[in-house]
Every structure is written in C-alpha cells, then in structure tokens.
Amino acid sequence: METSMSTQHPEILLVPENMERVACNGGGGALGHPKVYYTFHGQDDVVCGYCDRLFTKQPQDGAKPYKTA
What we know:
Layout: E1 12-16, E2 21-24, E3 36-39, E4 45-47, E5 54-58
Parallel strand pairs: 1-5
Antiparallel strand pairs: 2-3, 4-5
C-alpha cells in the first residue's frame, strides 16, 4: 500500500529591504500564537520560532527577490 505524505512548506513573507524588525502572531486570529518580534541583525532572513514563517528582505532596486511568496 502506497501512502502519500503532504509536506506543508512554511509561508514566505517579503518585507522591505530597509526593515530591521518584524512581528509575527501566526495569523489565523485565535488559532495563531503569541505575538513575537524578530530583528534581522544584518541578515536577509529571519524565521519565526513558533510557526516557521520566513521573513525575507525584498530588494528595493526593482530586481526580483530570490524567493517568492
């Protein structure tokens, strides 16, 4: 018998390149998680420790980002 596993990938959110702090509450209202804040600390990406959402900086020079939502 063959089983099919569905892998749900985390959500990728693009943020302006000059943004240094993001907040995440998991979305979904009461089904989310406590609101937490993350700082990029010179990195281009941060990941929420609760829901694995990926926040990535989007270039502002009109170039396409290397990751898409």
